[in-house]
Amino acid sequence: MTTPAPAQDDAGLICGYRFDRAEAGTTHAVDLDAAARWLADTNAPDGFLWLHFNLSHAQAERWLQRHANLSDAFYETLKDGSHSTRIERDEDALIAVVNDVHFDFGFEPSDIATLWISVGPRLVVTARTQPLRSVDALRTAVRHGESPRSSVALLEQLMRTQADGLVGIVRGVTTRIDHIEDELLSGRLDHKRARLGVLRRLLVRLQRLLAPEPAALFRLLQHPPAWMAEDDVQELRGATEEFSVVLRDMQGLQERIKLLQEEIAASVNEDNNRSLFVLTVVTVLALPINILAGLFGMNVGGIPLAEDKHGFWIVVAIVGGFTAIAAWVARRRKDR
Q1: Domains, the chain, ordered by start
Q2: Is the pTM of this model over 0.85?
């Protein structure tokens, strides 16, 4: 059960929800004023907040610095320019950098952006600059009644939602590759090599940005904060393993695309070699007549057969003979 969302203010808050452990399954939508009061109240009911911000708004980061009491590492992560996916511990909080596809994803390598996350026992903050698909799907699920039991469970649910989104991307890429492969087998080359190149760049970029840093994740799972329950640690480990399976599927698709590109390149090279061979044969067959035409075309004295009434046909016979010999040699080379 989710209470209706109040009117939002102008500080870049996209959505805000309060999850009460005392009222299992109950979720309350909050605005920034209510969130600030709840965070300032040390006697607030047991539970946690989820605040999702649009960092393109100038006031979003300022509000977080004033009310959220986040670690300095989170703000440094926002500005350090490193977008590799990772989850690491900073004292008593978790800092996560997650790359996700745009809401209107069009299977282009540029349709990827970053989501920054801070997870504490009482507050989860997610922030982005562009609309992203997975976090929007999570927001929709919460609005329809999903209620994570803890802040780490919310992070784990976000990762599983992203893994589901990646499965959809893998299926979409697989469908496109199947279509290209069918066209290749039917002999319709068109521009499939360029299309395969776009898909391969997309998969490489997704794998590079989405693969979690193993060292940071290992340290977190071995030494979690004291407030994290053992069930949350196991669920987070399971979510990362599920994520890794999808990334391995992506790697398999990359190898398949590579093989198709090599096959297309071999087919193109074979066509080019065939065309070059035909051009060479035509050039060789035309060589005798070009040489004789050049010799007999010189306006000098002593040109043979100039006075012979059968001279033209004699020259034609000579040219035909040499042409036949050249054609015989070219045919033998082709047969070999």
Answers
A1: 2-266 (3.30.460.20), 273-335 (1.20.58)
A2: no
